[in-house]
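Journal club side-thread
Mid-discussion, someone asked how the predicted structure for our own chain would compare to the paper's figures. Pasting it here so we can look after the session.
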Amino acid sequence: MITYHYPPELLELLCDVIPVLVRSKPAVVDFFVGAGVPNKLLGDWRLKVRQDRNSVNKYEIARSVLCRLNDAGEPALTMRREIVKRVSEFEDFSSCWDGDRLKAQGLVGQIQKLVNVKDSFTRINLERERERKSHQAQYEAELAAKRKRQKSGLH
C-alpha cells in the first residue's frame, strides 16, 4: 500500500521545526510558497498575517498548512516531498532566532534521521522487488524452454 500523507511522527516534527527555521509569520507563509504550495491553501493565512499578525502564531500557520496538504492526498504529494526536502537539507541556521537555533538543529537532525530510515527501507524493498522479478523472469524462461523441448520432442 502506498501512503500519500505524512506519517504522524513526521507531521509533528515538521509542525515544530518550520516555525523555528524562520523568524517571522510572513516567512512561514513564504516557506510554503517556495515549496510550491498554492495560494488556495495559503491565502487565508496571508490575509490574517497582513490584517492582524498578533492574532496568529507561526505554529498555527505551519500546522494548518501541513494538515491541509495531508488532507489533499496524492495531488499534494510533490509539495509534501518538497517541504521535507527543504527541511532535511537545511544547513544554515543563522537565520533562526538565537534561542531557536539549537532546537531547529535538533529537529532537522531528527527529520533527517527519520527520512534516512524511510529511504533505507524503501531501497531495501525496491531491491527485494527487483530480485523477485528477476527470479520470476528466470523461472518463466526456464518454463518456456522446458515447454519448447517437450513440444519439439513430440514432433
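Post-session note: The two ends are 48 Å apart (CA to CA).
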